[in-house]
Specification:
alpha+beta, globular, 4 domains, 383 residues, disordered N terminus, 37% strand, Thrombin, subunit H, six-stranded antiparallel β-barrel
Length: 383
């Protein structure tokens, strides 16, 4: 009995110590004190949801007209033009208390006049206007139309972007505002091509980046900027599904671009609601040609050589292209001296052309497997 009497008090002391340690661990595990939670709370007030509208004009024919033309060689009536308003969602974040926002160029580049709206984390919605942007970096600068003072992310302090560090993606994922995903910084200095867009020197993460996240911040657990969400790779170029391949524009590029954007805004005050690009594609507006990328399905169906050129999907009657004999179904292989393999290639080359400018287009058909090749160069004057 004496032995047992000595043991039990010792066990009681051990149990008491265990309970004390458990209570201490519970206190330390308070979710509100987690670094990731604190980092999100720090930046979330500066993150905005961006809603844009763009107007697309398309020339269409009645399907019966196409059937008629197959037999009689001409169309009976003129095509009609339709205007369609498309809405898109994205993210951005405020970088100045005056309401300046940085986002992706592709989020706002085709927004029509007066059709950019931003919703802040407190639920307030404001009109905003486009100031400037850069296709090369895929960054754009917009401003909230308000005299309020806004919380902002300070770009003087950015993440060192170390491999393996924890990162958090913040944004408007598929329309769900203030969404957070977590991962690590997987790689830096990545060059990728997604949906005919070329990206250089990106950072890579396995944190989920979804539609709507574009333009939103990627941060480290100190709340410093890692980059701006830009793209995810769902499939390899060979069509193999992938997982955990998200990409962001690095913070140093964002910081330097914002400095340039602010300088531009100071030199050009008062310019409001100017869309980044015309609502109609350059090839259609100037020459009357609607273009389409030649994907694998199209090249197989048409018997064309894959990976070359851009398909002319429609030609407007009496347009410069129509008057020069350019027909639907032909392929543009070269603009001037430049080979082209995407609609974006052609749009970029035509970006500086103006009314009256003459442009050489090499058009024709190159059949798959080294078959028939018929090419000619036509010179079109922009209207």
């Amino acid at each position: 009995m004496g032995v047992h009497a000595k043991i039990w008090p010792a066990l009681g002391v051990a149990a008491t110590l265990t309970l004390v340690r458990s209570a201490s661990c519970l206190a330390q595990a308070d979710p509100a004190a987690e670094p990731a939670v604190l980092a999100v709370a720090k930046v979330l007030p500066a993150v905005v949801n961006i809603n844009t509208e763009r107007v697309v004009r398309r020339t269409v024919r009645d399907p019966i007209e196409d059937f008629y033309a197959q037999f009689f060689g001409y169309y009976r009536g003129r095509p009609r033009e339709i205007r369609q308003t498309l809405q898109s969602l994205g993210s951005g974040f405020i970088v100045d208390p005056a309401g300046y926002i940085v986002t992706n160029q592709h989020v706002v580049a085709r927004a029509a006049d007066l059709k950019i709206q931003v919703t802040t984390n407190n639920g307030k919605t404001y009109n905003a206007h486009y100031i400037t942007g850069d296709d090369k970096t895929d960054l754009a600068f917009i401003k909230i139309d308000s005299k309020d003072s806004f919380p902002f992310i300070n770009l003087d302090y950015i993440s060192p972007n170390l491999l393996g560090e924890t990162v958090l993606v913040v944004g408007n994922a598929v329309g769900y505002g203030s969404s957070i995903s977590r991962g690590v910084l997987s790689a830096t200095k990545r060059d990728i091509s997604i949906e005919n867009m070329e990206y250089k020197n990106l950072v890579q993460t396995d944190a989920a980046i979804n539609p709507g996240n574009s333009g939103g911040p990627v941060i480290d657990i100190s709340g410093r900027l890692v980059g701006i969400s830009s793209a995810k790779m769902a499939f390899t170029p060979q069509g193999v599904p992938t997982q955990g391949l998200g990409f962001a524009i690095p913070a140093d590029v964002v910081r330097d671009s914002v400095k340039n954007f602010k300088a531009f805004a100071e030199k050009h005050p008062g310019g409001k609601n100017q869309p980044a690009v015309d609502e109609t594609a350059n090839a259609e507006r100037m020459f009357g040609m609607q273009l389409q990328d030649l994907n694998e399905e199209l090249t197989d169906a048409l018997g064309y050589e894959p990976g070359q050129g851009v398909l002319i999907s429609a030609v407007e009657p009496s347009s410069p292209a129509d008057q020069a004999g350019v027909e639907r179904g032909l392929v543009i292989y070269r603009v001037g001296k430049h080979d082209v393999n995407s609609v974006k290639d052609i749009e970029n080359l035509l970006g500086r052309a103006s009314s009256g400018t003459s442009v050489d287009f090499t058009v024709g058909v190159v059949h798959a497997g080294g078959g028939e090749k018929r090419l000619e160069t036509v010179t079109l004057a922009a209207r």
